[in-house]
Amino acid sequence: MALLMVSLFRLEAQTGTQAEQRKWAVDTARWIEQHPLDKEVKGRAAELLKWWTEVPDLTLSVCPLLLETKNKKIAPTVVTQALFAAGANLIEHPDATRQEQAVAAVQSALRAYAIAVAAEPRMRDAFLDGLAKADAEGKLREVYVDGVIASCEAAERSKKQKS
Q1: Which of 30, 35, 44, 90 is the most buried (most CB within 10 A)?
Q2: How far apart are CA 90 and CA 97, in angstroms?
Q3: Which residue pairs, CB below 8 angstroms and at least 24 apart, start in 4-7?
Q4: Is 89 helix (H, G, I), strand (E, B) or coil?
Q5: What pLDDT, on the 0 to 100 scale, is given for residue 148?
Q6: pTM of the model
Q7: Is the distance from CB of 28 to CB of 88 less than 8 angstroms?
Q8: 38: nearest Cα among 120, 109, 142
Q9: Do 134 and 143 meet the contact criterion of CB atoms below 8 Å apart?
Q10: Contact 3, 64 (CB under 8 A)
Q11: Angle 110-113-114 (CA atoms, 0-180°, nearest 5)?
């Protein structure tokens, strides 16, 4: 089981203009999505994660996305891709709602999953197949994302009340 729990990540650039850095982050997230099993993924993902943790002017607030996959071979791929896609979505659509960001994140993770499964069928996972089916039917938000966001918001309210 993989659990993606992302609360707050701060994003900042290392070199180049802000626009160039953000373009690099989006392009890298998309490259990783399209090449989930490539031997370069680990290095590129590490660079991108480092970049995100150093950027002070963007805050990525992502509700915990429960990507419960029983297949430990695919779990790191989909969890990481969901995170990177949420960041790319924030850069490209800064006014997106939490639901829109979550849908973009899960859809990107599902695209990476489909590519990985096509190359390595043993990475197939029933939970992710169910999400892919819901997405293909245009029901991903209704079937999955809205419930995740509602749970996240309830947990946030509870945490605030306890503080």
Answers
A1: 90
A2: 10
A3: 4/64, 4/65, 4/66, 4/67, 4/79, 4/82, 4/83, 5/64, 6/60, 6/62, 6/64, 6/65, 6/83, 6/86, 7/61, 7/62, 7/64
A4: helix
A5: 84
A6: 0.83
A7: no
A8: 120
A9: yes
A10: yes
A11: 90
Q: Is 44 exposed, middle or buried (0-12, 13-18, 19+ CB in 10 A)?
A: middle
- For 66, counting Cβ atoms within 10 Å of its Cβ (0-12 exposed, 13-18 middle, 19+ buried), the class is middle
Domain residue spans of the chain: 8-162
Q: Which of 96 and 9 is assigned the larger pLDDT?
A: 96
Q: What is the pLDDT of residues 38-77, one digit of tens each?
A: 999 999 999 999 998 888 788 766 666 567 777 889 988 9
Cβ atoms of 79 and 10 closer than 8 Å: no
Helix (H) or strand (E) holding 161: helix 146-162
Q: Considering the chain, what is the average pLDDT of its residues?
A: 84
* Whole-angstrom distance, CA of residue 150 vs CA of residue 95: 19
What is the pLDDT, as a whole number, of residue 118? 97
Task: Say what the pLDDT of residue 12 is.
Answer: 36
Question: What does the block give as tokens for 44?
Answer: 């590129």
Tell me the mean pLDDT in the region 109-127: 95
